[in-house]
Amino acid sequence: MKVWIKLYKHSIIGRALSDQTASQWGLAVWLLLFLGAWFLMPLIGDPSEFLAEPLQSPNLHHWFGTNGQGQDVWRQTVAGTAASLGLALATGLTMTSLGAVIGLVAGYSGGWIDRVLSSITNIALVIPGLPLAIVLAAFLPSGPWTLFLVLVITGWAWTARVFRGLALATRRKDFIASAEIMGESRLRIALLEILPNLSSSFASAAIGAVIYAIGAQVGLEFLGLGDMNRVSWGTNLYWASNDAALLTGSWWIFIPTGLCIALACSSLTLVSYAVDAVNNPSLRADQLLRRRLREPMRRAIGVTPLAKELRHAPA
Fold it and tell me: What's the CATH code, domain 2-279?
């Protein structure tokens, strides 16, 4: 456990969250949703089992009530959280990794490799992502792997564009020249020399990609383009709409799923604010000044209006 705590404190996320209370709460909420759902999965039973009369309001036997098919909404919410967050995490990391590799190779290599990869990236950026995702999801076999493939295909290009620019700004550094003199290959330099120095940018891009994956997969499944027999946030909302839950006043069918989506995206957004501070020197300077103003030994410098304002500003 001590080893894991030490690794966390020295990681990008750990250093970013050290002075950000709101972001720490965001990470705690997201981990509670993700790990809690997977922990409860073996304990709740089959979420597709028909247990009671349809459209029962929350009660002692069914905490979140039942849906239009008589299935327990609590089970559906837990199972949907585990499935949707697991798919979003895998999709976001894959999407970011693919875009980062393509962008770094293009930016560092230059020449015809850069021209080819940049042309492919520009074409992918020009094509509207949501219509393309809808078309691909409609014609490919339904299922989580289809959603994974569709979202990766339609979402990697922005990351590639960002990391190409970062590679162009980094490839003239001294440590890159040293690696070239030692005879390391271009791919090795891009992945093992440049990418580790852009880990904060990678973390920020990955968080944004996970948020995008959550919204995109929920949207596609809500439109009926996923596997409707699979329990997820999107299918929960699809069946709630199909059962006219809003018109019949059956709020307990869609409110839990909606709250989970809002909590997951909001918590990741709070974490991304802290990671952005690692990339932005001005934000780091503001955090350092606020921290020093809070130290008892440095209260004396808080005599100017600006210092007083920073002292009482929220973290």
Answer: 1.10.3720.10
